[in-house]
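Lecture notes, continued. The same structure-token format from the folding unit now serves as the input rather than the output. Read the line below as a description of shape only.
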């Protein structure tokens, strides 16, 4: 799981830094907005991947209870 999530989080951080750098130029505010939105989506995806694998790990040993 970490091999999926860690690079995604690093890419999100890079996009955030690029967006921050672009804020200093008025003509690039829309590109900065796009990069911030992309970073947010990447972070959300990383969170969802972590949740998926956590649930999968917990369900691995689950057995339905028989009445």
């Amino acid at each position: 799981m970490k091999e999926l999530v860690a690079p995604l989080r690093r890419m999100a951080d890079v996009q955030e830094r690029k967006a921050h750098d672009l804020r200093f130029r008025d003509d690039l505010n829309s590109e900065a907005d796009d990069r911030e939105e992309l970073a947010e989506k990447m972070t959300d995806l990383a969170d969802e991947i972590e949740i998926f694998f956590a649930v999968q790990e917990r369900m691995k040993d689950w057995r339905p209870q028989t009445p």
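Point for the exam: The chain has a mean pLDDT of 86.
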